[in-house]
Design a protein that fits this description.
single chain; elongated; 0% helix; mainly beta; 4-stranded antiparallel beta sheet
Length: 96
Amino acid sequence: MAYAIIKTGGKQYKVAKGDVIEVEKLDADPGAKVSFAEVLFHSGEFNPKVSVAGEVVEQFKGEKVIAFKYRRRKGYHRTVGHRQKLTRVKITDIKA
């Protein structure tokens, strides 16, 4: 089975045709075609002419992440929350 390792949003993802992955937000509407040109690896070989095509399924927000800061005996505590914006992409093709 052909697979590729792509890099987007500062992270690396192992993808195959038909996979649905969640990546950091891309500037594309649902239904739009996207292409990942930064392919690091393709099925056991390095080939710089490989590109991965996908289709944007949806834009959404991830789960809330809570960061709680605390210093013992100092009366200091802070709570900060964050929700990352994500894009769900379905991989449609790996072009070698």
